[in-house]
């Protein structure tokens, strides 16, 4: 059964021009009463985040303006400053909204796996808990989660400020995985464990970027949108790398 992993979606009417219309009045009408100011603000905030996420995932932080977001929603651009002080604040809110979901789910999966091993985790088991849980979000969460995955790939490859965001949101869950890998491979050198993680996260982020390059290289045999195919292979493939490097010591 698919898990509902997406944050609350705000349905938006479309004007003839294709722009989204603020949806507070519509949802209130469905309930038979006027929305409160808090409800209106919450709905508009979600709509701004959804639209900004889509635009940022395609064009990056520097390729999008607050005016672009306002135009897509169908509101005056001055309204944007009421909700978010500047573009970077909006970007951070977009990134953080789903980061808490994926980091929490992966931490829960790693904790559950750890508790099930009687103190004897395996490399592949730990990687399945870490990778499969994350990939399930993008498989089950639809377009918006895939947009977020592409955005995450951009952030992770932006040295100026991206590393700070990744540290803030993901260090605890990454260090939990590292701890399990060290216990699974007690003779492995620390540097090999950390380099191994580096290779794992690099492959994951390239997958989330969905560049379409593998589609062309493989002549269509592989599709960058096929996260199910990635899920079947990635943890096992990466486990083999850890075992090969650490087993040679």
Automatic annotation (TrEMBL):
DNA-binding region(s) in UniProt: 65-84
Domain (HTH tetR-type): residue spans on this chain: 42-102
Keyword tRNA-binding on entry: no
Molecular-function annotations in GO: DNA-binding transcription factor activity; transcription cis-regulatory region binding
Keyword Transmembrane in annotation: no
Compositionally biased region (Basic residues): 8-18
Keywords, ordered alphabetically: DNA-binding, Transcription, Transcription regulation
Region of interest: Disordered: 1-41
UniProt name for this protein: TetR family transcriptional regulator
């Amino acid at each position: 059964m698919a898990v509902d992993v997406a944050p609350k979606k705000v349905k938006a009417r479309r004007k003839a021009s294709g722009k989204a219309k603020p949806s507070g009045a519509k949802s209130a009408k469905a309930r038979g009463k006027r929305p409160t100011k808090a409800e209106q603000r919450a709905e508009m905030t979600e709509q701004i985040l959804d639209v900004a996420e889509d635009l940022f995932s395609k064009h990056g932080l520097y390729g999008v303006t607050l005016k672009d977001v306002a135009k897509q929603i169908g509101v005056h651009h001055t309204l944007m400053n009421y909700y978010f002080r500047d573009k970077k604040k909006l970007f951070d809110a977009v990134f953080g909204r789903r980061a808490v979901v994926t980091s929490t789910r992966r931490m829960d999966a790693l904790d559950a796996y750890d508790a099930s091993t009687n103190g004897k985790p395996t490399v592949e088991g730990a990687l399945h808990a870490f990778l499969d849980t994350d990939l399930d979000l993008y498989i089950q969460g639809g377009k918006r989660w895939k947009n977020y995955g592409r955005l995450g790939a951009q952030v992770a490859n932006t040295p100026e400020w991206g590393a700070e965001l990744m540290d803030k949101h993901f260090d605890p869950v990454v260090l939990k995985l590292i701890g399990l890998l060290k216990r699974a491979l007690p003779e492995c050198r620390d540097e090999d464990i950390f380099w191994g993680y580096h290779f794992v996260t690099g492959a994951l982020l390239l997958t989330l970027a969905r560049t379409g390059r593998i589609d062309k290289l493989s002549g269509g045999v592989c599709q960058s949108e096929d996260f199910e195919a990635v899920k079947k292979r990635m943890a096992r493939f990466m486990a083999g790398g850890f075992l090969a490097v650490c087993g040679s010591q």
